[in-house]
Amino acid sequence: MITNELNTGLVNAVREKLPSKENLANTLMDILYIGKEAIYRRLRGEVPFTLTEAAIISRKLGISLDKMIGVSFQNNAVFDMNIVDSSQPLETYYSILEKQVELFRKVKEEENSEIGTSSNIIPLTLSLNYDMLSKFRLFKWMYQNENIKCKHFEAMEIPQKIVDKQKEYTGAVAHIRSVDYIWDNMIFSHLVNDIQYFCDVHLISDEDKNLLKEELLSVIDDLEELANRGKSKTGNDVKIYISNINFEATYSYLETDTIQLSLIRIYSINSITTQDHEMFRGLKEWIQSLKKFSTLISESGEMQRIQFFKQQREIIGTL
């Protein structure tokens, strides 16, 4: 009896995960590399899925095993640690980017896809478009990590494959149908303070500081144009809010017809993610609730938009 219940729970969990147009049997055949008749015996309950098969399905489709077996631990959620390994920082950073790009590829054609982010830094979905800004973000993390030898910004070299993957990441995000950005109003002040610190301790040269400054001004121009347009370059909706309160961390979610993913940024460039439904519900509600403290500056709030970007240019000008 228990075996039948577990088998049914697994099948139901997979059905919920798949878009309606996808065939359940064909999908499981592709995942498990077993024949059609063997799959149908499992779907009919004549043969149970093995633990190994359940684990493979869980990993491939991002379904938690507790959901498969119908167990709910009310105060627990399973998190994926997207932590860059300090012994191989660039390699693991690339792997994390690659995994996230693959996720966005999977949902590219979904009609309903949404990202929400409340952020006290420039979101990766925007900042990875810019080489110097991306390099500084990595440099700051690597310098702080005592296990990594990183002495000077100028000496740090970013492999071209990482630069390309970062651009691929931002390009993939542009296909999300709707994006809500809620920014801490100190978002550029924090960044300028960080850059100035490394300049003061002679880890960033005057030449690189000027290059960073020029790029940040380009970022402002691009973001102001994005806010004015209210659309990504692919024509999808982008809403930008400026919060009147400060954020202690950066929280994000991705929601489609098949995925509910929560993300919390930790340790500068790292993050933890989960597909736990309760965690997702709470995090999305939290991000959406911040709108009542915020001003919408995309496609509206023209005066506030002009003032905000004018202030950011003045802040960058202090570098």
From TrEMBL:
This is Transcription regulator BetR N-terminal domain-containing protein. It comes from Bacteroides oleiciplenus YIT 12058. The lineage of its organism: Bacteria, Pseudomonadati, Bacteroidota, Bacteroidia, Bacteroidales.
